[in-house]
Amino acid sequence: MPTFCAPDGTRLAYRTIGDGDPLLCIPGGPTDSRYLGDLGGLSRHRRLILLDPRGTGGSAVPGDTASYRCDRLVEDVEALRAHLGLARTDLLGHSAGANVAMGYAARYPRGIGKLALIGPSTRAVGIEITGATRLDLARLRKDEPWFPAAFAALEAVSAGTGSDWDAVTPFFCGRWDDAAREHHAAGLPVNREAVAHFGADGAFAPEATRAALAAFGAPVLLLTGEFDLNSPPRSTAELAALFPDATLSVQAGAGHYPWVDDAGRFAAAVAAFLG
């Protein structure tokens, strides 16, 4: 895998798939980018540049654990853009990676052509996703055979009386089969320090980020799944309202990994947005 040097000297890795204009991709987790695959065939339209965040995949573990903080990861994205020699780039962030992407848009708006936020986390802008919102969304799956056990676990988590997230997992996928189980397991973070420090004190400045995004002039796509318990359509719509030029897309039948649930529909939607 090719590597580059972050501002603090940490060697970071990325993989490249496909041809065409570059699309820099930031995974969630924080975890390595392998679970993104080729984003449902989006590599047929764009050259995907998939970053492994520090301490994951092929990227080195940093000497300072504070550098795992979301706001610090923004500088890694800027270093990759400079390393690739791009005056600006289209940028895609999934899940927690959307927080990094929004931080980049706030700090380096001229470095972005178009911004795609997929199943976005909303921590960077302080939008709270309540337990009631997640429970209402989960009830849409009431006819699934796994629903009773998964919903009971979700109710316990929402009430603060349980923590069995494994039992809740089916809600994050548009369909719950062997392929979905395998994909979800492959995307789970393994670097606990990276996860623990990602949202540490100072990682997010919601008011400042909101103000910066209100002045962000580039087109933004916000795409989430109809059943995405992590990024409910209601919360994603609230996030979309913060941008001057935003397109909200809710992929029918999809969960938190829409390129897995319907690759063709996902790739077509993102490719059409990117142009």
Please explain how this structure is put together:
The mean pLDDT is 97. It is globular and about 50 Å long. Helix content is 36%, strand content 17%. It is of the alpha/beta class and 275 residues long. It contains eleven helices and eight strands. The two termini are 28 Å apart. The chain has an eight-stranded mixed β-sheet, with helices on both faces.
Task: Output the keywords.
single chain, 8-stranded mixed sheet, 275 residues, alpha/beta, globular, 11 helices
* Overall pLDDT level: 97
Largest sheet: 8 strands, mixed
- Report the total helices: 11
- Give the tally of β-strands: 8
Which regions contain 5 or more consecutive residues with pLDDT less than 50? none
Category by helix and strand content? alpha/beta
Strand line-up of the largest beta sheet: 1-2-4-3-5-6-7-8
Question: What share of the residues lie within helices?
Answer: 25-40%
| Strand content range | 15-25%
The radius of gyration is 18 Å
N-to-C series of helices and strands: EEEEHEHEHHHHHHEHEHH
Shape: globular
Distance between the termini: 28 Å
Which helices and strands occur, and which strands form pairs?
Elements: E1 3-5, E2 11-17, E3 22-26, E4 47-52, H1 70-84, E5 89-94, H2 97-107, E6 112-118, H3 131-138, H4 147-159, H5 165-168, H6 178-186, H7 192-198, H8 206-214, E7 220-225, H9 233-240, E8 246-251, H10 258-261, H11 263-274
Parallel strand pairs: 3-4, 3-5, 5-6, 6-7, 7-8
Antiparallel strand pairs: 1-2, 2-4
Helix pairs in contact: 1-2, 2-8, 3-4
